[in-house]
Design goal:
It is a single chain. The chain has 16 helices and 24 strands. It has about 500 residues and is an alpha+beta fold. The strands form eight sheets. A seven-stranded mixed β-sheet has the order 18-19-17-16-22-23-24, with helices on both faces. Helix 14 links the parallel strand 22 and strand 23. The mean pLDDT is about 95.
Length: about 500
């Protein structure tokens, strides 16, 4: 029975999975990733750490599954996007990656908005002018690290980098191209004039490929690094948030996934694009569908920060127990989770985290609950925007590590006013990468068989008791940001 391997180059960890075509997970493995933030709003990672993790994960998968290397029929890679990875002529990173959540480019975003008609840009590319665009990060590099940019011979994303290391071939998966702002929706390819907005030559960008397209076979060096067989086919891969939504069953209009990961993603399935500057637009894994989506720069990352810096030795579960004893609304606390600025729907890299209303009567559990509630308020903001655009939202599904928190899921159902479906056996984006590989190498025909792998589990129904409390909290959440926005901007401009 064919077996495929999926790798997820995630913000907080590198995860691998082996699956067979009957819907069984044969092995899982994981290695941590370090996120570097040397200056306010910065988010960087070391691609060489991703590659080291890939080797360790693949070898662990083989050891746990007791498979021979030649039994792996194909490899798929997924990852966060659009991370900016610059490689020299030998394929080595010239600096750490600039992550999609990085918020250093406020000046560059403002300059691009002055140069380009945003309405035309939005209609052509599907995305507005914001800190997500690769052009803004390239402009920052040109201004602050010109030597690094001059050494670059390839520009790609996180999973494109790993695919390149595995195969020795350059490639760009289509959704990286789309989110980069260099992709013309009408032609389905990169456009020279859009690439020029980043101040680079198009030769730095590899050819755009569909996710299930085979890029090449595993090189001898990569085989030695991973323990896999030389020549094993590797497909172009897929964006992590799109892969995660696909394997969660987000395939019908109105389906919506809430990803409670290091960042907070919200993704909707739709048969047609409706470009809006407040949301991103991606292609669904299923050909012919689209996936408008939003991303909160930091959600689980805020909780991890609290655990490490202020948790007093308590882990997430212990803090959840304290939060469960705190009432809805956290005794009047209002938190903003904008620790890395904010992406959608605000697109404000100057925004910062806030805890408003703090008093001596508040407890650690109140603060933890306020942080949990702040992320859900961000999701509520996205749902409000989606409905304003005209996207129906009829079903909510929760995934990723935060979905294991009972108190967080109760807050989500109550504050969003909709049932939240949890999943049984959802290992995340790595499963999507393995499935795409299976389609690419012909081990699985079509996209419907994903239902073999993931099943709905419990559904958390909303309660009416806290509806008014959360409506008031949401209004305060929005107001605190609006009142502090001029301060955020002013502070960002101070030396």
């Amino acid at each position: 029975m064919p077996v495929t391997l999926g790798l997820d180059i995630g913000t907080t960890s590198t995860i691998g999975i082996l699956i067979d075509t009957d819907g069984r997970t044969l092995a899982l493995a994981e290695q941590p990733v370090d996120l570097h933030s040397p200056s306010p709003g910065w988010a960087e990672e070391d691609p060489e750490q991703w590659w080291a993790n890939v080797g360790a994960v693949c070898q662990e998968l083989l050891a746990h599954s007791h498979l021979a290397p030649a039994e792996v029929a194909g490899i798929g890679v997924t990852g966060m996007l659009p991370a900016v990875v610059l490689l020299d002529r030998d394929g080595r990173p010239v600096r750490r990656s600039i992550q999609q959540s990085d918020g250093r480019v406020g000046a560059e975003v403002a300059a691009l908005r002055r140069e380009v008609d945003e309405a035309s840009f939005l209609a052509r590319t599907g995305n507005g002018i914001n800190q997500q665009l690769v052009a803004t990060k390239l402009r920052w590099l040109a201004a602050h690290e010109p030597a690094a940019l001059a050494r670059a011979r390839t520009l790609c994303g996180s999973y494109d980098f790993v695919v390149g290391r595995l195969t020795g071939e350059r490639s760009l998966e289509r959704n990286w191209a789309l989110e980069s702002g260099f992709y013309d929706l009408t032609t389905g390819d990169l456009a020279d004039d859009l690439v020029a907005l980043g101040g680079i030559d198009r030769t730095l960008l590899p050819r755009v490929r569909d996710g299930h397209e085979v890029v090449g076979g595993l090189t001898a060096l990569a085989a030695a690094h991973t323990g896999l067989a030389p020549g094993t086919p590797v497909v172009a891969g897929c964006a992590d948030h799109i892969a995660s939504a696909f394997v969660a069953g987000i395939t019908a209009p109105g389906d919506c996934l809430l990803k409670f990961g290091g960042a907070g993603d919200i993704l909707l399935a739709t048969p047609e694009p409706r470009p809006d500057p407040r949301l991103f637009l991606d292609l669904h894994i299923v050909p012919g569908l689209y996936m408008p989506n939003g991303c909160m720069a930091a959600s689980g990352a805020v909780l991890n920060w609290f655990v490490h810096e202020l948790g007093g030795g308590r882990d997430h579960r212990a803090l959840d127990t304290l939060a469960a004893a705190s009432p809805a609304g956290a005794r009047g606390l209002v938190a903003l989770p904008y620790f890395l600025g904010e992406k959608t729907p605000l697109h404000d890299p100057t925004a910062r985290g806030v805890l408003a209303g703090l008093g001596l009567h508040h407890t650690t559990g109140d603060v933890w609950r306020a942080l949990l509630e702040s992320v859900v308020m961000g999701f509520r903001h996205h749902l409000e925007v989606a409905r304003e655009i005209g996207y129906p939202v009829t079903r909510l599904v929760a995934s990723d590590g935060g979905a294991r928190s009972a108190v967080w899921m109760r807050i989500a159902a109550d504050a969003l006013g909709m049932p939240v479906t949890l999943l049984h056996g959802h290992p995340g984006s790595c499963l999507g990468a393995a499935y795409v590989a299976a389609v690419g190498v012909g081990a699985i025909e079509g996209w419907d068989a994903i239902a073999r792998f993931v099943r709905p589990a419990a559904t958390v129904a909303p309660g009416a008791a806290h509806a008014a409390t959360y409506a008031e909290l949401y209004a305060s959440y929005r107001e605190v940001y609006e009142r502090l926005r001029p301060l955020f901007l002013r502070r960002s401009q101070e030396p």
